[in-house]
Amino acid sequence: MNRDHEFMALALEQARKSYDEGGVPVGAVMVENGKVLAAGHNQRVQQGDPIAHGEMDCIRKAGRCARYDTVTLYTTLSPCMMCAGAIVQFGIGRVVVGEDRNFKGNAGFLREHGVEVSLLDDEGCRSLMDAFIAERPDLWDEDIAGNG
Ligand SMILES: [Zn+2]
Question: Is residue 144 part of a domain?
Fold first, then answer.
């Protein structure tokens, strides 16, 4: 049974939470053996932390893990190079991406480093980012330092 959409819905819930807080709406969840290890979202605005992208916040919230090879990370938006680097560094086995139309991200880099990547092209993830980018182009530009 493919539960990717179910877990992506949880990541999108996190993204909406950040949006409602006036933050960048990217959410992530980490899952191992069908169990959610952690959920997080971008905290740039909320915590004044430029490194706290959704994926980084989620990895941090999961706390210490000895191994990540059986972990799947769900993220509403294709990972930037910082987050892709953390994914490769920790050897996260699989990444499921909500959408990559608003930000191409680094799926190729992840695959080159042995990470399995699945793209859902989820309409909910896409429309939330569309709305945010239209409403706060300044904040979006800041989050990726103009490297979109
Ligand atoms: Zn990132």
Answer: no
Q: Say how many Å lie between the CA of residue 1 and the centre of ligand 1.
A: 29
Give every CB contact of residue 56 below 8 A, 6+ residues apart in sequence. Answer: 40, 82, 83, 86
Contact predicate 11/74, CB 8 Å: yes
Share of the chain above pLDDT 70, in %: 99
User: Count of CB atoms within 10 A of residue 67's CB?
Assistant: 11
Q: Is residue 147 part of a domain?
A: no
In the sheet with 94-99, reading across from the earlier edge strand, the strands are: 35-41, 27-32, 71-77, 94-99, 116-119
112 is catalytic: no
Taking the model in full, what pTM does it have?
Answer: 0.97
Q: How far is the CA of 56 from the centre of ligand 1 (A)?
A: 7
Can you give the C-alpha Rg of the chain in angstroms?
14
Query: How many residues in total does the chain contain?
Result: 148
Token code pair at residue 45: 């605005």
The CATH code of the domain that includes 66 is 3.40.140.10
